[in-house]
Design goal:
Strand content: 35-45%
Number of helices: 3
Helix content: under 10%
Shape: globular
Number of strands: 29
Strand order of the largest sheet: 1-2-3-4
Largest sheet: 4 strands, antiparallel
Distance between the termini: 37 Å
């Protein structure tokens, strides 16, 4: 997992190092790597949660106790023995916490990963420890917070409930009210994200589908499927990576071997080949349409949705015309860059 700063000066990346999980800060200009947190559980460094502004991270230590670290102050908050942070809000002050998975023996062939009694899943104020929303025995697969409201806290939370047909449930954090539920007709949900205006919910599935839902319709629709704005067969396999930009551009990724970029209306903008050696991760730099995505051999690649920037970059890296296949793959909605007096169509 990784995140990229809004000014694109640095990234935070979770890695294996010497058999131990760690979080590293990578300077985008110099390539300098600084370790900001180590001694994480070597089995699950990919489970690290990061705030979008990259001021806080959360993850399991070697004793499988989950902590949140404030990167500005160095302050560490420890959670209960069975609790695990699934998601942090933009500032890291609000956390979605699963209290079931780590201590639930029925979820693994052997004993539970952590010794203890499962507890309620919840949304937590990490500055005070106060429970904002008690979710009971909900088994959380994932989740997402809405954008900050006037008080700086998210107003809604998206819950990916693995204990009941892998559905996605939207809740109001101020009142606890249900704002809608969705489950696909086929396959299981894998990822969920919200558009920046919190009007649409984007989900992916094991069947390769990418689906966009209207949240207002989802709250009142007679059938959840009536809230579907559009859906596409995004990939041939499970869609394990998902990111949404500040302008509603959507990026999806699959271990099958590609990252694809979609317009807010569902049109394919780019198809980028990858050769992942793990579950692919991707993220937009906050406030931009610049996409960063993981390739094999620990390579982090950058792709700009801005065609002018893409063409300018292409002309600095490639001195020959693009082939027709490259044109359709990298520049599907505009003419390919010009090289000298030759223009590829």
């Amino acid at each position: 997992m990784f995140g990229v700063a809004a000014d694109q000066t640095h990234a935070l990346v979770t890695v294996y190092k010497g058999g131990v999980g760690a979080v590293e800060r990578v300077d985008q200009q110099t390539g300098t790597v600084t370790q900001v947190w180590n001694n994480l559980d070597q089995q699950t460094p990919g489970d690290t949660a990061m705030s979008a502004d990259l001021t806080a991270v959360a993850g399991l230590d070697q004793q499988r106790v989950d902590h949140e670290l404030d990167l500005d102050t160095g302050h560490v908050v420890a959670l209960g023995p069975c609790e695990q942070v699934i998601r942090l809000d933009r500032s890291g002050r609000t956390a979605l916490v699963d209290g079931q998975s780590a201590c639930e023996a029925d979820l693994s062939p052997g004993p539970a990963p952590v010794s203890g009694q499962p507890t309620s899943s919840r949304v937590v104020d990490m500055t005070t420890g106060r429970t904002i929303l008690d979710l009971g025995k909900t088994l959380l697969w994932g989740g997402e917070f809405g954008p900050p409201s006037d008080d700086g806290r998210p107003a809604i939370v998206v819950l990916m409930d693995a204990s009941d047909k892998n559905k996605v449930d939207v809740r109001d954090l101020k009142t606890g009210a249900h704002l809608g539920t969705y489950a696909p007709d086929k396959g299981f949900l894998l990822k969920a994200s919200l558009t920046p205006d919190a009007k649409r919910l984007v989900v992916t599935s094991t069947t390769g589908d990418l689906t966009v839902l209207d949240l207002a319709k989802l709250a009142h629709a007679r059938r959840p499927q009536d809230a579907v704005v559009w859906t596409v067969k995004a990939h041939n396999g499970s869609v394990q990576g998902l990111a949404v930009s500040s302008s509603g551009i959507i990026a999806s990724a699959a271990s099958a071997g590609n990252v694809r970029v979609w317009s807010p209306s569902g049109h394919l903008l780019a198809d980028l080949p990858i050769h992942p050696d793990d579950v692919p991760s991707l993220a937009f730099a906050r406030g931009t349409t610049t996409l960063y995505y993981e390739d094999g051999n620990d390579v982090l690649r950058k792709f700009s949705i801005d065609p002018t920037a893409s063409m300018r970059l292409a002309q600095t890296l490639v001195t020959r015309p693009f082939t027709p296949d490259e044109c359709s793959r990298y520049f599907p909605n505009q003419r390919c860059p010009t090289f000298g007096s030759v223009r590829s169509q």
